[in-house]
Amino acid sequence: MSQDYEKPELGTVSPEQRFSPVAVAALYIYVGALTTVVAETVAVVHAGAVAWTGVVVK
Questions:
Q1: Is 10 exposed, middle or buried (0-12, 13-18, 19+ CB in 10 A)?
Q2: Can you tell me the mean pLDDT for 1-27?
Q3: What distance in Å separates the CA atoms of residue 19 and residue 13, rounded to the nearest whole number?
Q4: Is 2 helix (H, G, I), strand (E, B) or coil?
Q5: Per-residue pLDDT band at 10 (split at 50, 70, 90)
Q6: CA-to-CA distance for 6 and 56, rounded, in angstroms?
Q7: Three-state DSSP class for 24?
Q8: Nearest-angstrom CA–CA distance, 7 and 37
C-alpha cells in the first residue's frame, strides 16, 4: 500500500461528522418514512388483491 492510501480524499467525511446527531436523526427519519411507504404499499396491494380475487389470505 502506498502512502496515498492513508491520506483522506476530497469529499470524505470524518467519523465525527459521519455519526453526528443530525445525520443520525436524518437517517432515522428517512428509514421511518421508507418503512411507512413500504407498509402502505403492501397494505394497498393486499387490499386490492383481496378485492380482485375475493380470497382473504391469512
A1: exposed
A2: 66
A3: 10
A4: coil
A5: low
A6: 59
A7: helix
A8: 40
Cβ proximity of 33 and 40 under 8 Å = no
Residue in the structure block whose three cell numbers are 428517512: 30
Contact 16, 23 (CB under 8 A): no
Residue with cell 397494505: 43
Residue type, 47: A
- Only one residue has cell 445525520, namely 23
Q: Comparing C-alpha atoms, which of 41, 19, 11, 50 is closest to residue 58?
A: 50
pLDDT of res. 40: 96
